[in-house]
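RECORD TYPE: inverse folding
INPUT: structure tokens
STRUCTURE:
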């Protein structure tokens, strides 16, 4: 039955591709291995098929408030009333247009009461834009030829003007390294998408010439050279997005750059903090 549902979703998603839509309910399967009270699960075939359906539909979990687990057996399972099992089986998904136009939409899972499933309430709430960006180390920096010299420069910097404990010295070096790594990123990694697009246009021009002169050795060599450069740029771009947004089960080299951009927008919207529970158990939602 699950496979029938997945096929129906993938088939019908095209009818709603140009406008915001959501789908929610009990999917009867967890998406991630940590969504089980018994600890981390082995990713099963059913979970993989569920994730494949999610990616094919280009949908993502809405921002979720409160409870992680949405189902429990109420302490009873096949006659055994002392084993409590809880899972996340209920979800609320939105498509790209939903996150793009209703970025403040969020799913609030409530206490289940006498039911084995938690009810969900969809909330619309305006939120402030995040201020500033946290520094994050990108693994692709380590593959650059200048990476080692950048680290060495920061670690061997002249610290005569710095007076303090060894810990303060290390802190200064780390701040310097962060600045140098940001410079490395802006010099060699920031324009990767534009560079790849430009080289792809070059490839198209070369291949058009090859169509008229297929035995031209210079054109053939140039085609191989630029193709390798484009492939490297695409691999770097996908590696960056894979690390930034932690897309599950997506392998490098699948050319899912457009999908990455959509997930980036969805995750940015979903990860915004809109309410905090105080020590008294009351929710505070005032953005000021």
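DESIGNED SEQUENCE:
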């Amino acid at each position: 039955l699950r496979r029938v549902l997945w096929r129906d979703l993938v088939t019908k998603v095209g009818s709603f591709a140009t406008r915001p839509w959501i789908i929610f309910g009990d999917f009867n399967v967890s998406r991630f291995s940590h969504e089980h009270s018994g600890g981390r699960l082995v990713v099963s075939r059913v979970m993989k098929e569920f994730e494949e359906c999610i990616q094919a539909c280009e949908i993502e979990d809405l921002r979720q408030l409160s409870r992680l687990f949405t189902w429990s057996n109420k302490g009873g399972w096949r006659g055994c009333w002392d084993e409590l099992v809880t899972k996340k089986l209920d979800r609320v998904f939105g498509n790209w247009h939903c996150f793009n136009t209703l970025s403040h939409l969020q799913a609030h899972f409530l206490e289940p009461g006498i039911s084995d499933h938690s009810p969900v309430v969809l909330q619309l709430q305006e939120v402030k834009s995040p201020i500033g960006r946290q520094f994050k180390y990108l693994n692709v920096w380590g593959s650059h030829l200048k990476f080692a010299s950048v680290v060495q420069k920061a670690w061997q910097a002249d610290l005569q003007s710095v007076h303090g404990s060894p810990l303060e010295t290390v802190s200064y070096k780390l701040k310097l390294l962060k600045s140098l790594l940001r410079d490395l990123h802006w010099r060699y990694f920031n324009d990767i998408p534009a560079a790849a697009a430009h080289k792809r246009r070059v490839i198209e021009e070369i291949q058009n010439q090859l169509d008229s002169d297929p035995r031209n050795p210079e054109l053939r060599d140039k085609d191989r050279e630029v193709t390798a450069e484009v492939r490297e740029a695409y691999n770097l771009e996908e590696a960056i997005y894979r690390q930034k947004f932690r897309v599950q089960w997506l392998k490098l080299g699948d050319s899912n750059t457009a999908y990455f951009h959509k997930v980036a927008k969805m995750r940015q919207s979903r990860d915004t903090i809109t309410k905090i529970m105080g020590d008294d158990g009351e929710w505070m939602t005032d953005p000021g």
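NOTES: Helices lie at 2-12, 45-57, 96-101, 147-155, 166-188, 192-212, 217-245, 257-270.
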